[in-house]
Amino acid sequence: MTMMDPLIVFTYKPQHKFSSFLCVCLLMIITFIEAQSNLCRTSCGNIPINYPFGIDDGCGSPYYRHILDCSELGKLELRTPSGRYPVHSISYSDPHVLVTDPYMWNCQDGDNFRPTRPFSLDTSTRFSLSPQNDYLFFNCSEDYVIVEPKPIFCERFPDRCDSSCDSASYLCRHLPECATALDRSSCCSYYPKATESLRLMLKYCASYTSVYWRTIGTSTTTDSPTSQVPEYGIRVDFDIPVTTHSLQCQDPSKGGGTCGFDTQTQNFLCLCKKGNVTSYCKDIDISEHRKAGVIAGAVMGVSAAGAVGIGVGIWFFKKVRAKAPITCGVQSNENRLF
């Protein structure tokens, strides 16, 4: 017999059937592990993507899972309950994300106010609105909003000082980039304590915009003092979860791995270039021990054909009822926004 169907070979040689199928499963698992370690992209366009963020599932910290999205054109967006917002930049030394909101008022709008929506954050993440933001509201109804010069109002009503919208604010008198953009409209500055406060303000105001204070210069020398300039946008601060595992994984002397997590359990994983999943990449004993035992739910980049191939293999293996069954398969994970 010169040609033989592989299924006939397995049926004819049962001892070869088990070892062959085992090898195939292990090879596919190792391939998937390598795919995940290589799939953790480190940039989107010109914006670096470092821990704790990831734009591929299973990369970065689970606290920021499904938060950033990178389009095929290399455009990075931040997902929040109120929508998607283009990311202008990310700073890891002074942890914050700068986003723009196309719905907010801008200089080109002038006195023509467009419908807008309040910006909000998911409270289950480690994001927070930066105190370096200022919010300007335009054409607010004085029947519902206290529009007063803040210093004078606070002297008269100290217990209600926080509820006033400052009509004499510096930013209203010096709108960034377009000081004379408003001809007939009123402006006041108010920092909402919560999303609900922002919604109420927009209920009685025509529009709003966010201005953050960007720090320029450096304070390392007296010749280069720091200063701040106002720019349009929203600064969102974030926390970087620092653990022994994350420090060891990223340590160049320990292999310089990529911090990730199991997409099923969300437990920490250190993803290594050689395709192993360890506590840190130069720990050879651990890496060799875990190669075969890695959880398939943590695997990324599995093609549909590969998943079907494993499923067919499992079905076949159960069909022939081998004495030492192996479970080789990819656990599914339902993507969710929050």
What coarse outline follows from CA principal-axis ratios?
A: elongated
Beginning-to-end CA distance, first to last residue: 59 Å
Number of helices: 8
Q: How do the strands line up in the largest sheet?
A: 3-4-5-6-14-7
Structural class: alpha+beta
String of helices and strands:
HHEEEEEEEEEHEHEHEEEHEEEHH
Largest sheet: 6 strands, antiparallel
Number of strands: 17
Overall pLDDT metric = 76
Residues in helix, %: 25-40%
Ranges with pLDDT <50 over ≥5 residues?
A: 1-14, 28-35, 284-338
Proportion of residues in extended strands: 15-25%
Cα-based radius of gyration, to the nearest Å: 28 Å
Describe this structure in words.
There is one protein chain. By secondary structure, the protein is α+β, with helices and mostly antiparallel strands. 25% of the residues lie in helices and 21% in strands. The chain is built from 8 helices and 17 strands. α1 packs across α2. It is elongated and about 65 Å long. Keywords: Membrane, Signal, Transmembrane, Transmembrane helix. The chain crosses the membrane at residues 294-317.
